[in-house]
């Protein structure tokens, strides 16, 4: 679906990524993880990939502090790297840095981030995709991890935003900041195209995670059947 040209940037980002968004949500890894068909190890594998992605995103975001427009999109409340590291220490133990495995699709994703997000339209696209997703669908993931796998607070701090007590007002503010960037038509088109690419990169990542963890869990179940 092509976004309306008279729409705001946040509307164009939402409308322009609907197809890609549905494709990500329909990935078997996502379906099975949220349905309780996998295990905590599968979630731990996902958390490890998130660290690589957010290191690239948040490292690049620092460069935008000197950009009068870009600085408006930088919120310390959103920074995820410290919380991911706490989760990995819980999920893998004190030697987590030696234990985690970064997948090829994740390296491709992180390389893309490092290549493009020092430019405002591209940064806006990736930040929109990641952070608003964390504040929306990410909260569903947190609930499902607790419900199906018995996880508590430890291991799920990635989805906790203690400095954002209410998600909706903050998301509204973030969209206002996006819309106030003053991107021209060419920059807006770049942002939408990059957001579409972000979803495709996520889809490739979930495909690799699925190939590993769905097959692993199924093999384990068959072994005891």
Topology:
Layout: H1 9-16, H2 18-25, H3 28-35, H4 40-61, H5 81-92, H6 96-99, H7 104-116, H8 120-135, H9 137-149, H10 167-179, H11 185-224
Pfam families: Heme_oxygenase
Organism: Georgenia soli
GO biological process, one term: heme oxidation
Can I get a quick summary?
This protein has 11 helices and no strands. It is mostly helical and 225 residues long.
What would the keywords be for this entry?
single chain; 225 residues; Heme Oxygenase, Chain A
Which architecture does the CATH hierarchy give at level 2?
A: Up-down Bundle
How far apart are the termini?
A: 46 Å
| CATH homologous superfamily identity | Heme oxygenase-like
Multimeric state: single chain
| C-alpha Rg (nearest Å) | 18 Å
Quick one: how many beta strands? 0
Q: How many H/I helical runs?
A: 11
How would you characterize the largest beta sheet? none
- Poorly predicted runs are none
Shape: globular
Helix and strand element order: HHHHHHHHHHH
CATH topology: Heme Oxygenase, Chain A
Number of domains: 1
Structural class category = mainly alpha
The CATH class assignment is Mainly Alpha
Mean pLDDT: 94
Determine the strand fraction and express it as a percent band.
under 5%
Protein described:
The chain is built from eleven helices and no strands. The chain has a single domain (9-218), classed as Heme oxygenase-like (Heme Oxygenase, Chain A). With 225 residues, it is mostly helical. It is globular. It has helices at residues 9-16, 18-25, 28-35, 40-61, 81-92, 96-99, 104-116, 120-135, 137-149, 167-179, 185-224. α4 runs parallel beside α7 (104-116). The N and C termini lie far apart (46 Å). The model has no long low-confidence stretch (mean pLDDT 94). One of its GO terms (molecular function) is heme binding. It holds the Pfam family Heme_oxygenase.
